[in-house]
Amino acid sequence: MHRVLLALLLLSYSQPTGILAAEKPNFVVIFCDDLGYGDLSTFGHPTIRTPHLDRLAAEGQKWTSFYAADNVCTPSRAGLLTGRLPIRSGMASNERRVLFPDSAGGLPASEITIAEALDEIGYQTACIGKWHLGHLPEHLPTRHGFDSYFGIPYSNDMNRIDRATSQIALAEQEKFQAYDVPLMRGEEEIERPADQRTITRRYTEEAVKRIREMKDAPFFLYLAHSLPHIPLFRAPEFKDRSPAGIYGDVVEEIDWSIGQITASLRDNGIAGRTLVVFTSDNGPWLTFGTHGGTAGLLRDGKGSTWEGGQRVPTVMSWPGKLAPGIVHEMGGTLDLLPTFLSLAGGQLPQGRVFDGYDLSPVLLGTGPSPRQEMFFYQGAQLYAVRKGPFKIHFTTYTSYVGQKPVPQDPPLLYQIENDPSERFDIAAQHPEVLSDLRNLADRHRQSVEPVEDQLIKVIRKE
Ligand code: MG
Predict the structure, then answer these.
(1) 163: CA distance to ligand 1 center in Å?
(2) What is the whole-number distance in angstroms between the Cα of residue 262 and the centre of ligand 1?
(3) How far is the CA of 436 from the centre of ligand 1 (A)?
(4) Identified catalytic residue from 32, 52, 73, 139
(5) Cα 141 from Cα 444, distance rounded (Å)
(6) If residue 341 lies in a helix (H) or strand (E), which one and from where to where?
(7) 219 - beta bridge partners?
């Protein structure tokens, strides 16, 4: 025992900067694309095997009521990186739900990302994977606080060459050439079309390399997998391996990736000072049959403000620091920026509205979650609000089946702790809850300042 203490003391004397660095934790965010609430074995999937995530969940925290900032890619990512609802940055729109290869807009330079906020207090930063916050040079990760970038600038199904392919979901690994998606390093295109069959493996290798390079001082690594968004691709060694079919293969390769990253944190001796957050950008893309995931018992999926669109499977790990267990309290990707800044000893930037909360009391087991409400947007419109166990729907929309949004007057009300599938409308029995949630929605709407819509801007053709 004394010998260990002495060794630690000697280590401390020999590495004075190392001690200071050790006070600030590293942050690794692993963000999947369109992974549903029911797609991990630790969240109840009967056949997809995710042993690495299961172990992280068992040793760390599994969050069962954790929300993405939006129900589609671009606004969800804007929310995660800024701690602000995408409506506040112009990254949510009624005209176009996400950015496309002809988009001229992107995350405004005036926004402060997690990378920029942490860079201010001495962090190294790396972005790997799908960006989808603007592909023109001025919008790239390297202009938003990241020291390095390796990945694809928008979704893996964009710039489809073969328009005759009606079944996008069936264009799997043999047909990566059908999607003219660039792979970038820094601000340069290095491969086009990106060979998506090896993309999860290459993101992982890059992550392991960057962890090794950054290990001696605090860092933030944002790894945004471009899968399991369709079209699905996986490396040959994962082909036809999962009993859950190609979708299972893809998720199992991502789980392999988690294993590589956690092993690298251990091998570099920094697991004990690294918070890993694994989550998803929105719910499963249900219209693609067995090529899409599942929201489990939650209603609907990607593109909808029902729970299945935004409640996402979330696992956090920080060996020796996290209070282990299953967290039923609310949290969300909007909370990562305030939480990281709090854990790193930084301050929230002044002069702007944040929608995120500092979740560190829940992480460290010292207090309850400060998040008591969640606002659900469809484009630029507020469709639903959750407060505590209750969720009110002012408008509902069933995703991707051609149905128009349905105004609900009076609104629908669900008690989603005893009715997580949102099946039993209890509005008539709880007029006081309805009125409370209406007031909350009104106050929230008044807090939103109009800003320029970034998603309707299109590159002008000559
Ligand atoms: Mg997505």
Answers:
(1) 22
(2) 24
(3) 32
(4) 73
(5) 30
(6) helix 336-343
(7) 124
* pLDDT(9) > 50: no
Sign of CA dihedral 116, 121, 122, 127: negative
Mean pLDDT, the chain, whole residue set: 93
The 10s digit of each residue's pLDDT in 114-137 is 999 999 999 999 999 999 999 999
pLDDT at 402: 77
Residues 112 and 116: their CA atoms lie apart, in Å, by 6
pLDDT of residue 399: 86
Residue-level pLDDT at 321: 96
- 3-state secondary structure at position 314: strand
Provide the CATH number for the domain formed by 375-446 in this structure.
3.30.1120.10
The pLDDT tens digits of the residues spanning 149-163 come to 999 999 988 888 866
**Which amino acid, one-letter code, is at 90?**
G
Rg (CA), the chain: 21
Take residue 105 and report the two structure tokens written for it.
């807009």
Question: DSSP letter string over 262-287?
Answer: HHHHHHTT-GGGEEEEEEESS---GG
Question: Are the beta carbons of 309 and 58 closer than 8 angstroms?
Answer: no
Residue 20: Cβ within 10 Å count: 12
Write the CB contacts of 322 (distance below 8 Å, at least 6 apart in sequence): 60, 61, 275, 316, 363, 364, 365
Q: Which two tokens stand for residue 396?
A: 């509902």
Inter-axis angle of helices 2-14 and 16-23, nearest 10: 100
Class of domain 22-371: alpha beta
Q: What are the b/e assignments for 87-97, b being 16+ CB within 10 Å?
A: bbbbbbbeebb
Active site annotation includes 127: no
Please name the residues in contact with 390: beta carbons below 8 A apart, sequence gap of 6 or more. Answer: 413, 414, 415, 416, 430, 433, 437
73 catalytic per annotation: yes
Here the tokens at position 365 are 């087991």
Q: 267: number of CA atoms within 13 Å, CB side?
A: 11
- Stated length of the chain: 462
Residue (of 49, 18, 12, 36) closest to 242 by Cα position:
49
Contact 114/79 with Cβ under 8 angstroms? no
The rounded Å distance from CA 320 to ligand 1 centre is 32
The per-residue pLDDT for range 386-413, each reduced to its tens digit, is: 999 999 999 999 987 778 999 999 999 9
Ligand 1 centre distance from Cα of residue 37 (Å): 13
Name 103's bridge partners. Answer: 458
Please tell me the pTM assigned to this model. 0.94
Spans of all domains in the chain: 22-371, 375-446
